[in-house]
# Entry
Amino acid sequence: MMTTAELDRYQPDAMGALRTAIQRGRLPHAVILSSPGHVGEDELAALLAQTLLCERPAGALAPCNECPQCHLFKTGAHPDFNEVRPKGLMRGIKTDDMLELIGRLQATALMGRAKIGVIHQAESLRKESANRFLKTLEEPMPGTYFIIVTTRPERLLPTIKSRCQVIRLRPFDGSVLRERAGVELGLRGKDLELVCTLSRGRWRRACFLAGHLDEYRVLIKDLASVLCARGTAAAPAAECARAIGDALKAGRKAFDERCKAELSARAREWSDIEPKVRREMLDALEEDLKSAQAADERDEKASLFEALIELWRDVLVLQWTGDEALVLHQFLLGQVKSLAAAYAGEEIMRNLADIDLVRGPAVYLNMRINLVLQGLLAQAAQPVGQHVPLRRALLATGL
Ligand SMILES: [Zn+2]
# Structure
């Protein structure tokens, strides 16, 4: 969790914009916190909400932490504070959840000060609830505030966006990321260097990489080997993609077992709770576990494409500068040199464009990742004269 002092340090623009709006009494009824992800947006949403509920704030974004409202807020039980977030494997905000939130906000404030609705990952709002939400925004009720948190503001309805003040949070700058990665992730030396460079200011990416550094090194080595094979890359591409697909499957299976074990442990622990309530608690827990697993799996898939991009970036840097010291993956220097000799600059640019084209759908639309990757690698390695369009390369994998 990030403290207010840390928010001030890491997100001075966002904090400043909100403070000014509050001080001038011009805080709009709906604020969008647009964030690159995991840079303090949840903490900022909570701080803003608590400030609005607090009876004696010491200033803008400075709740007293002592009044009954603040106490209630911190227990997570404040009746005028409501949040929705995506649940379940498909990771959309459920329409029912959203309608319930709107309904609660339309009722009278229970404690009398303000009513707050926080919508996390608002980009996943479904059409029906987005439209209902829009209606609510069109007729704002006094004392009601929406805090809309998103990492993909471009996916919000333009009509929603135009009714909100957009507050942008920024990626951590290099020194902040380095400091936090050292302290919170326990990284040192080369690992710290690599994670800081690869995550490019994104804290979630840094956390993921810190937990998967060995796998990352193996993965990028495998990818480089496939691409080094050039004309004979088809078989190793299929092999590499199959191994990755198998690893994802194994991860899912392990999760299912963990999930089952956790649920039966809780069921035993909660055995004296009334059956209907216990069932609801278990269902909620299962949904939370599945959401977390889905998010992890998306990180893993996204990581595959990022590794490919980073690999090509190294190759381009070497081609352009000839300076081996600038290669980020020093443990891969030999292969990077081979790739720089084997691929023309335009080919690499085309490969990067192809990666960009498929990675969104592959990560978010549950496409079969092994087939996408196989097509991408095989296509990338095709000799110039035999290059086929990406679509055909993907179809050839059976996708
Ligand atoms: Zn207070």
In short: The chain has three domains: 4-168, 174-211, 216-396. Residues 54-56, 63-64, 66-67, 69-70 surround zinc ion (CB under 6 Å). Residues 77 and 375 are 50 Å apart (CA to CA).
